[in-house]
Design goal:
The chain has 16 helices and 16 strands. The chain is α/β, with parallel strands linked by helices. Strands 2-1-16-3 form a four-stranded mixed beta sheet, covered by helices on one side. Strands 4-13-14-15 form a four-stranded antiparallel beta sheet, with no helix packed on it. A four-stranded parallel beta sheet has the order 5-6-7-8. Helix 5 crosses helix 6.
Amino acid sequence: MVPVTALPIHDGAVWISGHQIRAVGSWSEIQEIQSGTSGPVTGPVTDLGAVALFPGLVNAHCHLDYTAMVGLLTPQGEFPDWIKGILTLKSQWTDAEFEASWLLGARQQLETGTTTVANIETRAHQLAGLRAATPLRIFSFLEMTGIRSGREPERILAEAIEVLKSLPPNRGGVGLSPHAPYSTSPELLRVVADAARRDGWRITCHVAESEPEFDMFMYRRGSLFSWLENQRPSEDCGLGSPIQHLHRHGLLDSPLLAVHVNCLWGDDALRLAARGASVVHCPRSHAYFSHPRFQREVLTEAGVPICLGTDSLASTRASREGPPVLSLIDELRAMASDDPSLSPRQMLAEVTINPARALGLKSVLGELSTGALADLLVIPYAGSPATVEEALIHHRGPVAATMIGGRWEWIAPGCSVPVSNSGLTSSPLVRHSP
């Protein structure tokens, strides 16, 4: 068992009460804890056999509604060309296609051990139904642009907040996503920042993703600047880096999930750290676009927490194994291949405790600990606790089982792990036996 906040436990057990974890430890420790409780302890004991048990993974950045776009777009010579391609493709899709694509992505996440997704939502009118159709914890960040529409920033924000406040209660949460510096106006960034400070909205934003974006804001030049020069005001260009642009307009004044951040300048990393921002790296999407090298060392040295996201399958290449799926485990494996110096423990933190903290859910998600939500994933494993974290990174395909809130929401077909949902409201024990 891998609690993440503690060393792996041989012959581990998790005591679950309702939707939360009551205790974790070795099997013998949990038996001692139970024997010392007041009153009878009821509920089944599920012996999972030779497996590894992890907390459910937390995806810090995703576009579920682009899942079925896999293979429909090819990397272009310039990043703006890809943007034009996906805008054209989106304009040709129906509501039904977007809904099916979103649900396909949600299912792929569940089957590969992710239990919480920070998702960028573009279909406000479908959002309530989509969130209700999956057991995943969906943190819905409603996307805002406004460059082409010409609408007032205050109105764009008001409409987004109205949608989010109208959503029925859900396992996840909601937030705001001004798409990127190049696709929003400075005025929209400012009103979003004001709302976040005033009302506590959590924010995510694509920023400093590509060299064309960096050149646009630093130097008023490049392919992105040329394409957008007549579509948006350009007075905000030539004044500094994209990170400085966000800072200047207040978007770093509240906790921010800054997505991609491939192009840093000067004290950008220190600015992010000082304001409590987290950076989301998407390894397979990064490779798809051949973006500048991700500056992990600079960010880490400055004290910026790093999280992983899947981005979308519209920007993920196929491999020799076949078409890609939305899988944080596949992102971990891609990152390990790209940077062998990273330790498995460090990588695991970037899909568990780091994104949980970035979403304001420290000690609630991304770890197996007393009081945390009972979100688990199971993979077959019969090796040593010393190599169990590495085993997750190299696991391929669906996981054996995924639990969310004390309920098994995914069990792989033909899975030999003896799991069921009977009696899960009455303090079950989940045990790994060697």
